[in-house]
Amino acid sequence: MAKHIVVVTGSPRTGKNTDRAADAFVQGAQQAGHTVYKFSLAQHRVGGCIHCMQCGKQGYCVQKDGMEEVYPQIEKADLILFATPIYFWHITAQMKAFIDRLYALYTMGRFPKNETGKEMGLLLVAGDSDPSVAQEPLSFFENVFGKRLGWQNKGTLLITGTSRAGFDLEQEGFLQKAFDLGASIQ
Ligand SMILES: Cc1cc2nc3c(=O)[nH]c(=O)nc-3n(C[C@H](O)[C@H](O)[C@H](O)COP(=O)(O)O)c2cc1C
Fold first, then answer.
1. What is the pLDDT of residues 15-38, one digit of tens each?
2. Which domain covers residue 70, as residue numbers?
3. Using a 6 Å cutoff on CB, does residue 17 contact ligand 1?
4. How many domains would you assign to the chain?
5. CA distance 145 to 98
6. Residue 58 to residues 32, 52, 54, Cα–Cα distance (Å)
7. At the N or C end, where does the chain have fewer CB atoms within 10 A?
8. Residue nearest to atom 4 of ligand 1 (CA)
9. Nearest 5°: phi and psi at 122?
10. pLDDT digit string (tens) for 68-110?
């Protein structure tokens, strides 16, 4: 079944590892027949939630920024790929701001809770070569989106070692793995 997929990238750098791997995922997903909307947090300004709680009263988030464009995409998405570098053993501040702003959909009841209404994928990118660097972000996504919100994880790709001299995303096979992850979505 063709799905609508939203790919959210949390790196402030366009054209670097997270962005390139996300693009490879997009190509794979499109080849598998899915429609994909990519939202780059390097290209769109997304402020942190200001806890005004107007979303619960007005039915929408009152902050006017990049989220305006992506909210309708999130609502209709079957699957969301969270693609983020690891900063200080966790997701980037940009990705956390994006996730906090999903509270507007959650509080308006447009964000299924404990239903398999949505699926997710994870693409984590770390400078370190030791995979344990991703322990906290992996637990975060599995606990919050998996256990608490009931989203099914359709696949995780952990890219490590980007800080190593001579690291090459393509040569190390990570672009192919990202493509394959996109192509594996059913
Ligand atoms: C502020 C900051 C903190 C970082 N913290 C970590 C870290 O805790 N562990 C790690 O493996 N890499 C860390 N890195 C390296 C990035 O994860 C790595 O450079 C990654 O490739 C960045 O993604 P990008 O190439 O898509 O921008 C950090 C980089 C920055 C700028």
1. 999 999 999 999 999 999 999 999
2. 4-184
3. yes
4. 1
5. 14
6. 39, 11, 6
7. N
8. 87
9. -125, 135
10. 999 999 999 999 999 999 999 999 999 999 999 999 998 877 7
